[in-house]
Specification:
The chain is of the alpha+beta class. It contains seven helices and twelve strands. The protein has helices spanning 2-68, 73-98, 104-120, 122-137, 177-182, 208-221, 256-273; strands at residues 145-148, 151-158, 162-166, 172-176, 185-187, 194-195, 198-203, 232-239, 242-248, 250-251, 283-287, 290-294. A five-stranded antiparallel sheet has the order 4-3-2-1-5. The protein has a three-stranded antiparallel sheet with strand order 7-9-8. A two-stranded antiparallel ribbon has the order 6-10.
Length: 295
Amino acid sequence: MKTDSLLNLKNVAATVKEKEGIVARYTDNFINKLIDFTPKLIIAVLTLLIGLWIINRISKLVEKAMQKRDLDISLRTFLKSLISIGLKIVLIVTVAGMIGIGTTSFVTILGAAGLAVGLALQGSLSNFAGGVLILIFKPFRVGDVIEAQGQSGEVKEIQIFNTLLLTGDHKTVILPNGPLSNGTIVNVTRYGTIRVDIALTVGIQNDLDKVLEVVREVTAKHPLVVETDNITVLVGKIIDGAININIKPLCKPGDSAALISELYHDLKIAFEKNNIKPPLPKRKVVSGDDSLTTD
Protein backbone atom coordinates (compact mmCIF):
# COMPACT_ATOMS: atom_id res chain seq x y z
CA MET A 1 0.00 0.00 0.00
CA LYS A 2 2.78 2.36 0.86
CA THR A 3 4.50 1.51 -2.38
CA ASP A 4 1.34 2.27 -4.43
CA SER A 5 0.82 5.57 -2.61
CA LEU A 6 4.42 6.49 -3.22
CA LEU A 7 4.07 5.72 -6.95
CA ASN A 8 0.89 7.81 -7.20
CA LEU A 9 2.62 10.72 -5.52
CA LYS A 10 5.52 10.44 -7.95
CA ASN A 11 3.13 10.35 -10.92
CA VAL A 12 1.27 13.43 -9.68
CA ALA A 13 4.55 15.24 -9.10
CA ALA A 14 5.70 14.36 -12.62
CA THR A 15 2.43 15.54 -14.13
CA VAL A 16 2.55 18.81 -12.21
CA LYS A 17 6.14 19.34 -13.27
CA GLU A 18 5.21 18.63 -16.90
CA LYS A 19 2.32 21.13 -16.75
CA GLU A 20 4.59 23.69 -15.13
CA GLY A 21 7.03 23.21 -17.99
CA ILE A 22 4.24 23.75 -20.58
CA VAL A 23 3.01 26.90 -18.78
CA ALA A 24 6.58 28.18 -18.56
CA ARG A 25 7.11 27.61 -22.29
CA TYR A 26 3.84 29.39 -23.14
CA THR A 27 4.72 32.22 -20.78
CA ASP A 28 8.17 32.60 -22.27
CA ASN A 29 6.72 32.47 -25.78
CA PHE A 30 4.11 35.09 -24.86
CA ILE A 31 6.67 37.37 -23.27
CA ASN A 32 8.99 37.05 -26.27
CA LYS A 33 6.16 37.83 -28.69
CA LEU A 34 5.03 40.71 -26.51
CA ILE A 35 8.54 42.10 -26.53
CA ASP A 36 8.66 41.79 -30.32
CA PHE A 37 5.12 43.19 -30.76
CA THR A 38 5.39 46.15 -28.36
CA PRO A 39 7.53 48.36 -30.65
CA LYS A 40 5.16 47.68 -33.57
CA LEU A 41 2.17 48.52 -31.39
CA ILE A 42 3.75 51.74 -30.17
CA ILE A 43 4.67 52.77 -33.73
CA ALA A 44 1.14 51.89 -34.92
CA VAL A 45 -0.48 53.94 -32.13
CA LEU A 46 1.79 56.90 -32.86
CA THR A 47 1.02 56.58 -36.56
CA LEU A 48 -2.71 56.53 -35.79
CA LEU A 49 -2.54 59.62 -33.59
CA ILE A 50 -0.31 61.58 -35.97
CA GLY A 51 -2.42 60.48 -38.94
CA LEU A 52 -5.64 61.67 -37.27
CA TRP A 53 -4.02 65.03 -36.55
CA ILE A 54 -2.86 65.37 -40.17
CA ILE A 55 -6.31 64.39 -41.48
CA ASN A 56 -7.89 67.03 -39.25
CA ARG A 57 -5.51 69.66 -40.61
CA ILE A 58 -6.16 68.61 -44.19
CA SER A 59 -9.93 68.84 -43.61
CA LYS A 60 -9.58 72.39 -42.28
CA LEU A 61 -7.36 73.44 -45.20
CA VAL A 62 -9.83 71.95 -47.69
CA GLU A 63 -12.73 73.76 -45.99
CA LYS A 64 -10.86 77.10 -46.15
CA ALA A 65 -10.09 76.54 -49.83
CA MET A 66 -13.77 75.82 -50.56
CA GLN A 67 -14.83 78.91 -48.59
CA LYS A 68 -12.49 81.05 -50.73
CA ARG A 69 -14.18 79.65 -53.84
CA ASP A 70 -17.56 80.51 -52.28
CA LEU A 71 -18.88 76.97 -52.64
CA ASP A 72 -22.33 76.14 -51.35
CA ILE A 73 -22.42 75.23 -47.64
CA SER A 74 -24.05 71.86 -48.32
CA LEU A 75 -21.34 70.94 -50.81
CA ARG A 76 -18.59 72.09 -48.43
CA THR A 77 -19.95 69.94 -45.61
CA PHE A 78 -20.38 66.89 -47.85
CA LEU A 79 -16.93 67.10 -49.46
CA LYS A 80 -15.25 67.72 -46.11
CA SER A 81 -16.89 64.62 -44.63
CA LEU A 82 -16.12 62.56 -47.73
CA ILE A 83 -12.42 63.49 -47.69
CA SER A 84 -12.14 62.95 -43.94
CA ILE A 85 -13.80 59.51 -44.02
CA GLY A 86 -11.75 58.39 -47.02
CA LEU A 87 -8.44 59.40 -45.41
CA LYS A 88 -9.40 57.74 -42.13
CA ILE A 89 -10.17 54.45 -43.93
CA VAL A 90 -6.75 54.57 -45.59
CA LEU A 91 -5.13 55.32 -42.22
CA ILE A 92 -6.89 52.43 -40.46
CA VAL A 93 -5.89 49.98 -43.20
CA THR A 94 -2.28 51.19 -42.97
CA VAL A 95 -2.17 50.86 -39.16
CA ALA A 96 -3.72 47.38 -39.36
CA GLY A 97 -0.98 46.31 -41.75
CA MET A 98 1.69 47.69 -39.42
CA ILE A 99 0.55 45.48 -36.53
CA GLY A 100 0.40 42.38 -38.70
CA ILE A 101 -3.30 42.20 -39.56
CA GLY A 102 -3.87 41.01 -43.12
CA THR A 103 -5.35 43.85 -45.17
CA THR A 104 -5.70 42.16 -48.56
CA SER A 105 -9.09 40.67 -47.80
CA PHE A 106 -10.23 43.89 -46.15
CA VAL A 107 -9.30 45.98 -49.19
CA THR A 108 -10.93 43.44 -51.51
CA ILE A 109 -14.18 43.59 -49.53
CA LEU A 110 -14.15 47.40 -49.59
CA GLY A 111 -13.53 47.41 -53.34
CA ALA A 112 -16.33 44.93 -54.02
CA ALA A 113 -18.71 46.90 -51.79
CA GLY A 114 -17.79 50.16 -53.54
CA LEU A 115 -18.35 48.59 -56.96
CA ALA A 116 -21.74 47.20 -55.94
CA VAL A 117 -22.86 50.52 -54.50
CA GLY A 118 -21.62 52.37 -57.58
CA LEU A 119 -23.58 50.12 -59.94
CA ALA A 120 -26.71 50.33 -57.80
CA LEU A 121 -26.54 54.13 -57.58
CA GLN A 122 -25.28 54.86 -61.08
CA GLY A 123 -27.99 57.42 -61.87
CA SER A 124 -27.75 59.06 -58.47
CA LEU A 125 -23.97 59.30 -58.72
CA SER A 126 -24.34 60.97 -62.12
CA ASN A 127 -26.68 63.53 -60.58
CA PHE A 128 -24.28 63.98 -57.66
CA ALA A 129 -21.35 64.61 -60.00
CA GLY A 130 -23.49 67.09 -61.94
CA GLY A 131 -24.41 68.88 -58.71
CA VAL A 132 -20.76 69.15 -57.72
CA LEU A 133 -19.87 70.62 -61.14
CA ILE A 134 -22.73 73.14 -60.93
CA LEU A 135 -21.76 74.24 -57.42
CA ILE A 136 -18.07 74.54 -58.34
CA PHE A 137 -18.25 76.23 -61.76
CA LYS A 138 -21.52 78.13 -61.06
CA PRO A 139 -23.17 78.36 -64.52
CA PHE A 140 -26.07 79.78 -62.52
CA ARG A 141 -26.82 80.79 -58.95
CA VAL A 142 -29.85 80.85 -56.70
CA GLY A 143 -32.08 83.69 -57.92
CA ASP A 144 -31.03 83.44 -61.58
CA VAL A 145 -33.64 82.85 -64.27
CA ILE A 146 -32.56 80.03 -66.57
CA GLU A 147 -33.85 77.96 -69.46
CA ALA A 148 -32.75 74.32 -69.49
CA GLN A 149 -34.12 70.86 -70.28
CA GLY A 150 -37.21 72.44 -71.88
CA GLN A 151 -38.05 74.32 -68.67
CA SER A 152 -37.62 77.94 -67.65
CA GLY A 153 -37.90 79.64 -64.28
CA GLU A 154 -36.12 81.14 -61.31
CA VAL A 155 -33.56 78.97 -59.52
CA LYS A 156 -34.81 78.55 -55.96
CA GLU A 157 -32.43 75.89 -54.67
CA ILE A 158 -29.35 74.00 -55.87
CA GLN A 159 -29.16 70.65 -54.10
CA ILE A 160 -26.55 67.92 -54.41
CA PHE A 161 -28.73 65.78 -56.69
CA ASN A 162 -31.39 68.20 -58.04
CA THR A 163 -32.02 71.83 -58.91
CA LEU A 164 -35.38 73.42 -58.08
CA LEU A 165 -36.96 75.99 -60.43
CA LEU A 166 -40.02 78.16 -59.86
CA THR A 167 -41.80 78.82 -63.16
CA GLY A 168 -43.71 81.96 -64.08
CA ASP A 169 -47.02 80.27 -63.20
CA HIS A 170 -45.64 79.25 -59.77
CA LYS A 171 -44.99 75.61 -60.49
CA THR A 172 -41.98 73.92 -58.93
CA VAL A 173 -39.81 72.05 -61.44
CA ILE A 174 -37.21 69.57 -60.16
CA LEU A 175 -34.35 69.05 -62.61
CA PRO A 176 -31.79 66.24 -62.07
CA ASN A 177 -28.30 67.71 -61.99
CA GLY A 178 -26.72 65.06 -64.24
CA PRO A 179 -28.54 65.94 -67.48
CA LEU A 180 -28.69 69.60 -66.41
CA SER A 181 -24.90 69.95 -66.14
CA ASN A 182 -24.36 68.18 -69.49
CA GLY A 183 -27.05 70.07 -71.41
CA THR A 184 -27.48 73.59 -72.75
CA ILE A 185 -28.26 76.21 -70.11
CA VAL A 186 -29.53 79.68 -71.00
CA ASN A 187 -28.87 82.03 -68.09
CA VAL A 188 -31.25 84.93 -68.60
CA THR A 189 -30.03 86.99 -65.63
CA ARG A 190 -26.29 86.39 -65.75
CA TYR A 191 -25.38 90.00 -66.58
CA GLY A 192 -28.24 91.69 -64.76
CA THR A 193 -30.12 92.92 -67.85
CA ILE A 194 -31.97 91.37 -70.76
CA ARG A 195 -33.07 92.74 -74.12
CA VAL A 196 -36.79 92.58 -74.87
CA ASP A 197 -38.31 92.56 -78.35
CA ILE A 198 -41.29 94.79 -79.20
CA ALA A 199 -42.75 94.49 -82.69
CA LEU A 200 -44.83 97.30 -84.26
CA THR A 201 -46.41 97.95 -87.65
CA VAL A 202 -47.34 101.40 -88.97
CA GLY A 203 -48.83 102.49 -92.26
CA ILE A 204 -46.55 103.21 -95.16
CA GLN A 205 -48.14 106.66 -95.56
CA ASN A 206 -46.49 107.91 -92.32
CA ASP A 207 -43.25 109.90 -92.18
CA LEU A 208 -40.72 107.20 -91.20
CA ASP A 209 -38.27 109.62 -89.57
CA LYS A 210 -41.03 111.03 -87.40
CA VAL A 211 -42.17 107.53 -86.45
CA LEU A 212 -38.64 106.55 -85.37
CA GLU A 213 -38.23 109.79 -83.42
CA VAL A 214 -41.46 109.17 -81.49
CA VAL A 215 -40.51 105.54 -80.82
CA ARG A 216 -37.07 106.45 -79.45
CA GLU A 217 -38.45 109.29 -77.32
CA VAL A 218 -41.20 107.18 -75.72
CA THR A 219 -38.89 104.24 -75.12
CA ALA A 220 -36.09 106.35 -73.59
CA LYS A 221 -38.50 108.04 -71.16
CA HIS A 222 -39.83 104.79 -69.72
CA PRO A 223 -38.50 104.29 -66.15
CA LEU A 224 -37.97 100.52 -66.57
CA VAL A 225 -35.61 100.96 -69.52
CA VAL A 226 -31.91 100.86 -68.61
CA GLU A 227 -29.04 102.12 -70.77
CA THR A 228 -31.28 104.55 -72.63
CA ASP A 229 -28.40 105.44 -74.95
CA ASN A 230 -28.27 101.81 -76.10
CA ILE A 231 -31.82 101.39 -77.43
CA THR A 232 -31.92 99.50 -80.72
CA VAL A 233 -34.69 100.43 -83.17
CA LEU A 234 -34.78 98.46 -86.42
CA VAL A 235 -36.89 98.98 -89.51
CA GLY A 236 -38.03 95.72 -91.05
CA LYS A 237 -39.79 94.68 -94.23
CA ILE A 238 -42.49 96.69 -95.94
CA ILE A 239 -45.36 94.32 -96.65
CA ASP A 240 -48.91 95.09 -97.80
CA GLY A 241 -48.63 98.78 -97.05
CA ALA A 242 -47.19 98.24 -93.54
CA ILE A 243 -43.75 99.07 -92.16
CA ASN A 244 -42.42 96.65 -89.53
CA ILE A 245 -40.48 98.24 -86.66
CA ASN A 246 -38.65 96.32 -83.93
CA ILE A 247 -37.68 97.98 -80.65
CA LYS A 248 -35.07 96.23 -78.48
CA PRO A 249 -34.56 98.07 -75.15
CA LEU A 250 -32.65 96.71 -72.16
CA CYS A 251 -34.27 96.18 -68.75
CA LYS A 252 -33.88 94.17 -65.58
CA PRO A 253 -34.99 90.53 -65.97
CA GLY A 254 -37.90 90.88 -63.57
CA ASP A 255 -39.25 93.94 -65.41
CA SER A 256 -39.48 92.47 -68.92
CA ALA A 257 -43.19 91.59 -68.91
CA ALA A 258 -44.22 94.94 -67.38
CA LEU A 259 -42.00 96.90 -69.78
CA ILE A 260 -43.43 95.21 -72.87
CA SER A 261 -47.02 95.80 -71.76
CA GLU A 262 -46.48 99.43 -70.74
CA LEU A 263 -44.47 100.32 -73.85
CA TYR A 264 -47.24 99.04 -76.14
CA HIS A 265 -49.67 101.23 -74.17
CA ASP A 266 -47.44 104.34 -74.25
CA LEU A 267 -46.60 103.95 -77.94
CA LYS A 268 -50.26 103.67 -78.90
CA ILE A 269 -51.05 106.92 -77.08
CA ALA A 270 -47.98 108.63 -78.62
CA PHE A 271 -48.97 107.48 -82.12
CA GLU A 272 -52.47 108.90 -81.67
CA LYS A 273 -51.09 112.24 -80.45
CA ASN A 274 -48.68 112.50 -83.37
CA ASN A 275 -51.24 111.34 -85.94
CA ILE A 276 -49.24 108.23 -86.84
CA LYS A 277 -51.61 105.93 -88.67
CA PRO A 278 -51.77 102.14 -88.56
CA PRO A 279 -51.62 100.09 -91.78
CA LEU A 280 -54.76 100.29 -93.90
CA PRO A 281 -56.77 97.07 -93.59
CA LYS A 282 -57.07 94.83 -96.63
CA ARG A 283 -60.45 93.44 -97.63
CA LYS A 284 -60.99 90.53 -99.99
CA VAL A 285 -64.17 90.77 -102.03
CA VAL A 286 -65.31 87.55 -103.68
CA SER A 287 -67.72 87.72 -106.59
CA GLY A 288 -68.44 84.48 -108.42
CA ASP A 289 -65.20 82.94 -109.57
CA ASP A 290 -63.28 86.22 -109.31
CA SER A 291 -61.76 87.79 -106.20
CA LEU A 292 -60.62 91.36 -105.60
CA THR A 293 -58.52 92.80 -102.76
CA THR A 294 -59.13 96.45 -101.87
CA ASP A 295 -58.08 98.90 -99.18
